[in-house]
Amino acid sequence: GAMLGAAAPSLMASNPAAVMAASPAETKEWNSRYAGRIPHTNSYYAKCLFGGVLACGVTHTAVCPLDVVKCNMQTNPQKFKGLLPGLRIVLAEEGAGTTGIWKGYLPTAIGYSMQGMFKFGLNEIFKDFYSNLAGEESATAWRGIIWALASGSAEFFADIALCPMEMVKVKVQTSPPGTFPTQFGEALATMQATAAETRFPFGSLAPLWSRQIPYTIAKFVGFEFVVENLYRHVFTSDRSTYSKGTQLGITFMSGYIAGVFCALISQPADNLVSQMGKASNAGRGFGEIASEIGIKNLFMQGLGTRIIMIGTLTGLQWWIYDTWKTAMGLGTTGGDAAKKKK
C-alpha cells in the first residue's frame, strides 16, 4: 500500500505501528485474487470465460470426424474396427459433408463452447474462492486439493450446460444412416419429440458427471502439477525471461501429458456413455450394459485412439486458452508456487 510515512514523517518516527495499521495493504486480509502475477479482477474472469469458449469449442469441433468414428467404434465394434478403417467406412457410406463425416458438428460446437466457458472460466473463479476460504498458508500447502475442488466444481456446472447438446450429438453420430436426422434443427426437434424415450435434455447428465468430473479433475490437477514441476526443475529462471512462445510450449507440453493421464482414467465411463446412445440399449441400466461388454473391453476398446486424441486435444485446449490469456495480457496459467519454493 502507499506508505503514509512520506506525508507524515513525525508520525512515522513516533509510532510506526499506527502507520502500519493505516496502510491498507497491511490491514487487508490476504486475497488469492490479488496474490499472483496478475490481479484477478472481474474483467480477468470475463476474459477467462471467453478463453474457455475458444479452447473447447474450436478443438472439439475440429476433431468432429474423429469423434464420429470413435463413437461408432464403441457402439458398433464389429463394423468399426479402427480409426482409419472407420473413417473410410463413414466416407464411403455417408460422404465427407455435414450428413457424413462432419455430422453432429453443430451440437458439438454449441455444446462444447458452453462447456468450455464454464470449465475454464469457473475453474479460475473457484480456485480463488476455495483459496480464500482456506487462507494463504493452507491454500499453498494444500493446493492440489484446491485445484481438484475448483476444477470439479467448474465441471459440475459445465456438464449441465453441455448435456442437451451432447445428447443430440451422440444420437446424430451413432444412429445408422437414414434412421435419424443429421441436420441440427431437425435432430433437435426429433430429440424433443421423443424425449420420453431419449430422456432429452438431461438424461445423460449423471453419466456425463461420472465421466467428466473425474476426468476434468485429472486434467486440471495433472496440468497444474506438470506446469509447476517444469518451472521448478526444468525452466528454472524467472518466468518473464522466457519468450511467450516458450511459455506456450510449456503450456502445450503440460496439457499433453495431463491428457494422456486423463484418457486412461476416463476410458470405461466414456465407453458406457457411447453405449447408452445405441437404440438397442434404450432404457437399460449401466450395470447391465457394462457386464455385457465385459471389463477388458470397457477399458481397452478404442483406447489407443483416445490417448492420441486426448493428449493432443488437451494440449491444444490449454495452448489456445493460454494464447488467448497471453494476448489479453493475463499471462499463462499455473506454476505460481514454483517460484515460492526455490
Set down the secondary structure blueprint:
Blueprint: H1 9-14, H2 16-22, H3 24-27, H4 42-62, H5 64-75, H6 83-94, H7 105-134, H8 136-141, H9 143-174, H10 184-193, H11 195-198, H12 205-234, H13 244-276, H14 286-293, H15 295-300, H16 303-327, H17 336-340
Helix pairs in contact: 4-7, 4-16, 5-6, 7-9, 9-12, 12-13, 13-16
Structural commentary:
This protein is mainly α and 342 residues long. Helices cover 73% and strands 0% of the residues. The chain contains 17 helices and no strands. Helix 9 crosses helix 12 and helix 13 crosses helix 16. The longest helix is centred in the C-terminal third of the chain and has 33 residues. It is elongated and about 60 Å long. The relative contact order is 0.12. The N terminus is likely disordered.
How far is the first residue's CA from the last residue's CA? 26 Å
Beta strands, count: 0
User: What profile does the largest beta sheet have?
Assistant: none
Q: How large is the radius of gyration? A: 24 Å
Helix coverage percent of residues? Answer: over 70%
Mean pLDDT: 89
The SSE string, one letter per element, is: HHHHHHHHHHHHHHHHH
Q: Rough shape?
A: elongated
Strand content: under 5%
Low-confidence stretches: 2-14, 16-27
Helical stretch tally: 17
Derived from helix and strand composition plus strand pairing, the structural class reads mainly alpha
